[in-house]
Amino acid sequence: MPINAEYRGPGELPEVIPVFPLPGALLLPRGQMPLNIFEPRYLAMVDDSFRDGHRLIGMIQPDATHSRNEAKPALFRVGCVGRITQLAESGDGRYILELTGIARFKVIEEIEALTPYRQCKVDYFPYVDDFTARKGEEAVNREALLEVLTDFLKVNNLKVDWEGVESAPNEALVNALAMMSPYGPPEKQAMLEAPDLKTRAEILIAVTEMDLAKKRTSGDPPLQ
């Protein structure tokens, strides 16, 4: 596999991938997720991904509502595979890495593996559009998205690089805001499973509007 890999379709990705269950973590195609890896099983996962040459990790959320085993929680059926595009050693046994999203997947089954980390057989074909950059972004209501972002920043006394926001394409803007949003696993999963970018933006707007309404009526303090 070349250092700079480009994936043009589902057939270019392996059917079995290591998965990293992490609640509240949302990775989307072409999005960048920083990770601080310190558990021995996930250090081994990173080492093996380089040894195997693919540098791929499937990000997926544990499904708390269906989990009976805390040591091995049930998983949601949809995740997103990413490629390690940056990696640094911390000097104290940790890896600091950046994962760049490639495509979402559906879990077919979890396989019995001898590795300390979990592995799943997955299917990328339901999300074939993920391989096309900026697919459907013309349908996004950018004005509504920026309006709710402005309200969110004001209520929570936060600032943002508006120059960067205004220059970002719709896909990058929607996905970055979704990934950085402070919402819980159900909301993150809904945004992950959205059938298209327009729907993902609509979910993000709706969830944010509900959060803002709750803060205004309850007098909750702003985020710190």
Give an account of the 3D structure:
There is one protein chain. The protein has 224 residues and is of the alpha+beta class. It has two domains: 122 residues, LON domain-like (Archaeosine Trna-guanine Transglycosylase, Chain: A, domain 4, Roll), CATH 2.30.130.40; 82 residues, no CATH class. The protein is built from six helices and six strands. Helix 4 packs across helix 6 and helix 5 runs antiparallel to helix 6. The chain starts with 15 loop residues before the first strand and ends in a 6-residue tail after the last helix. The mean pLDDT is 94. It holds the Pfam family LON_substr_bdg. InterPro entries: Lon_prtase_N, Lon_prtase_N_sf, PUA-like_sf.
Task: Tell me which oligomeric state these chains represent.
Answer: single chain
Q: What is the name of the CATH class of the largest domain? A: Mainly Beta
- Summarize the amount of helix as a percent range: 25-40%
Task: Please give the number of β-strands.
Answer: 6
Strand content: 15-25%
On the 0 to 100 scale, the average pLDDT is: 94
Cα end-to-end separation: 43 Å
Number of domains: 2
**Radius of gyration over C-alpha positions, nearest whole angstrom:** 18 Å
> Any guess at the CATH architecture of the largest domain?
Roll
CATH superfamily of the largest domain: LON domain-like
Question: Strands of the largest sheet, in order across it?
Answer: 1-3-4-5-6
- Low-pLDDT runs: none
- Decide which structural class fits the backbone: alpha+beta
Largest sheet: 5 strands, mixed, barrel
Count of runs of 4 or more consecutive helical residues: 6
CATH topology of the largest domain: Archaeosine Trna-guanine Transglycosylase, Chain: A, domain 4
Specify the overall morphology. Answer: globular
Order of helices and strands: EEHEEEEHHHHH
